[in-house]
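Researcher: Here's the sequence for the chain we discussed earlier.
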Amino acid sequence: MKAMILAAGRGERMRPLTDETPKPLLIAGGKPLIVWHIEALVRSGIRELVINHAHLGQRLEDVLGDGSRFGARIAWSPEGEALETAGGIANALPLLGGEPFLVVNSDIACDYDFARLPPLAAALRSSGLRAHLVLVANPPHHPKGDFALRNGKVCAEGELMLTFSGIGLYDPALFAGITRGAKAPLAPLLRTAMEDGAVSGELHGGRWMDVGTPARLAELDRLLAGL
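Model: Thanks. This is the structure I predict for it:
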């Protein structure tokens, strides 16, 4: 199974830190945010990676290279101008291939076990599903959540709303209607698939953080340092 790490965001809420450094290269616990993901994926046996970039993207390529020093193989998907989540994934489809793949936001910190996902990806199509999402409890800065989880299926609405973690499995067919190079958000595609009962999900109860602000980056740094 291949995995894509989304790394094209400008990181406006992180400014001025991201004026000269792409957000995925910001340091927490002694290493760049994106390196924590690469190492976790490799430990889980997922070594074929695709990374998109836009803002200061060459810096990412210069630092991470082809991924060999991590035991991975990185293919790069430059966008020039960020294409939003679904647009970035659609643009990278030729690199991701025709089988279901994993996508991870680079600006989260999470102890989710990625080794759980290859068997789910292999069964995605046979189950009539187009996506599988990992959800988490709502953090204080996002109290209303994104989606609900009911009997293993993700729904657009429900009594108990949860937050999308930024970790998901997707069938490439989900993005078939997006023209390569076009901007497109992910949520509308997911909600349409949810109406068809084609999105499964699970609740991750471990550590998760949206590292979207300098304060949360500092909090993560203290957490990883054991302070």
